[in-house]
Write a structure and sequence with these properties.
about 240 residues, alpha/beta, Rossmann fold, two-stranded antiparallel sheet, 8 helices
Length: about 240
């Protein structure tokens, strides 16, 4: 019997990943085994990395592998835990520059109180997997699930290893790719949505790349990570740190 999967109610979705290579599947299975071995009770993991590094795909694959080992999974993304645009306008939050995006966009309080703390081994188990829908702005903070006692929470995120979250993770995974690879992937992914490759490149350079440079300089997530995976070649990812 397949273990249960709990998913965010957000309308923001990434397409299903292509079938994984044998080498990639072996790495994912190894990571899943390490994750479930942490404890029989609830476990929380973050899959962090630059925008378009492949962290969401890896987190989705990891959740499938964890369920194959008999553990239920909770899947969330910090894209669903950002302050709504209405707050940005009313309160003067700058979310368009790199500095503003890093400092102002994350709803750290909701992510801690509604997601990470209750999903922990000593938490209530009453977990909200989405704060605000990033596309519609709808408030889902009261939409909760009752997490099983052996559930594994897997969160994909940029900025996931900020100090404000640090003590709430049981495993920290950094998905590493060169900056230029992340940029090329992000532009290709977002060109249609942003109205062309030039607009998508400006968005990534001015907001995402700029904010990530602040994050890397201040937090050094690579050094905080328990596991570092080089995802430059998605068919043959390489473990840099285990």
């Amino acid at each position: 019997m397949t273990a249960q999967s709990f998913e965010s109610v957000s309308t923001w979705r990434q397409g299903a990943p292509p079938p994984a290579s044998e080498a990639r599947s072996a790495l994912i299975d190894r990571l899943a085994s390490r994750l479930v071995a942490i404890r029989p009770g609830r476990v929380r993991a973050v899959v962090d990395g630059r925008t378009a590094s492949g962290k969401t795909t890896l987190a989705d694959e990891l959740a499938v592998a964890v369920r194959a080992l008999g553990r239920p999974t909770l899947r969330a993304t910090f894209d669903d835990f950002k302050k709504p645009w209405r707050d940005a306008r009313e309160k003067g939050y700058d979310r368009t520059s790199g500095e503003g995006y890093y400092r102002n966009a994350p709803d750290i309080e909701s992510a801690r109180r509604l997601l990470l703390e209750p999903a922990g081994p000593h938490g209530s188990g009453i977990v909200a997997l989405c704060g605000h829908d990033p596309l519609t702005g709808e408030d889902h903070r009261t939409t909760t699930i009752d997490a099983p006692l052996d559930a594994v929470l897997i969160v994909d995120s940029v900025f996931g290893m900020r100090p404000e979250y640090d003590e709430l993770w049981d495993l920290r995974v950094w998905v590493d790719v060169p900056v230029e690879v992340a940029l090329a992937r992000g532009v290709a992914r977002d060109a249609d949505m942003e109205g062309g490759a030039d607009a998508a490149e400006r968005l990534h350079l001015d907001r995402y790349h700029a904010s990530e440079e602040i994050y890397v300089a201040e937090v050094d997530p690579v050094q905080r990570a328990d596991v570092v995976i080089d995802n430059t070649d998605v068919g043959a990812p390489d473990i840099v740190r285990w």
